[in-house]
Amino acid sequence: MVEDVCVNPRNVAVVGAGTIGVGVAQSLAQSGHRVILLDLTHEILSKAMTTIRDNLKLAAFFDARLRGMDPAEVLDRIQPTQDYACLADVDLVVENITESWEAKAELYPHMDRICRPACVFAVNTSAISIGRLAATTQRPDRVVGIHFMNPLCSAQTIEAATALLRQMGKRGIVVNDSPGFVANRVLMLTLNETISVVQDGVADASAVDDIFVNCFGHTMGPLATADLIGLDTILLTLEVLQASYADAKFQPCELLKQMVKEGRLGRKTGSGFYRYAGREKGSSL
Q: In sequence order, what are the residues at sequence separation of 6 or more whose Cβ sits closer than 8 angstroms to the Cβ of residue 280?
């Protein structure tokens, strides 16, 4: 008999300790979850834990709800590891690795063999179809999007994923499975076009972002957002969307490809459309 999905997940694994994975692991630990944080190297995991430690020190200054939080207690709930065997007993896995079909298609069957049958896989992808990834496992009804829900998954799986989000103080919005879904299908076109504006010399990055922040009321401009996401991730996502829809509108612009080739990927490398000293945005490039 197949074990039922745990609809109140408490033990969660985060696979991939990049920018998003670090934030997810921290949010989970702050909301009382035990977290396995898995990545390929000790260096990546060490950097991730340092980032979480620094974030926790700052968090209380910006969120009154966290002022009584003990950072050491939160950190103690996170177990960094390179060992996939640690996934054997978790209730739910949040996957955050690079936006590459080949990498994800290799990962999911591997996790499928290790994780217990009741474990839910939550996919954090910008564009790759959830159903396509689910088909690489023996649990297609237990694979769900991290920000979006796969209509092929079971009601229990949706309940488990939305319960986890509620526990983290977040709200899930259910949409249908399609490459890029809603947010990234629109966002990646916007980012690509604003990069093209800079490429064509119409305006520099600061001017473009100033328009979106001060004229449209956006919290962050599109090029600062691109630096936060990572230009390599944006390029990979556009390539997935272009292949999925066979539509030239998703063709990455030349400046984006050039910046990725040069290693100017945004915040994570210290240079993108802006220069970064530590964690603060510096001058426009």
A: none
Among candidates 253, 227, 226, 225, which has minimal Cα distance to 239? Answer: 253
Q: What is the pTM of this model?
A: 0.58
- 10-residue stretch averages of pLDDT, the chain, 285 residues long: 73 92 89 95 94 79 63 93 97 92 95 96 86 94 68 58 79 70 87 97 96 93 95 93 90 97 95 80 44
Q: Specify which residues 123 forms β-bridges with.
A: 95, 145
Q: Looking at the structure, do residues 28 and 145 belong to the same domain, yes or no? A: yes
Given 119, 140, 167, the domain boundary residue is: 167
- Residue 4 φ/ψ region, left for φ over 0, alpha for ψ in the -120 to 50 degree band, beta for the rest: beta
Cα dihedral sign for 87, 93, 98, 100? positive
246: which 2 tokens? 């066979």
Range of the domain at 264: 183-284
Q: Which of 112, 134, 167 is the last residue of a domain?
A: 167
In a domain, 2, yes or no: no
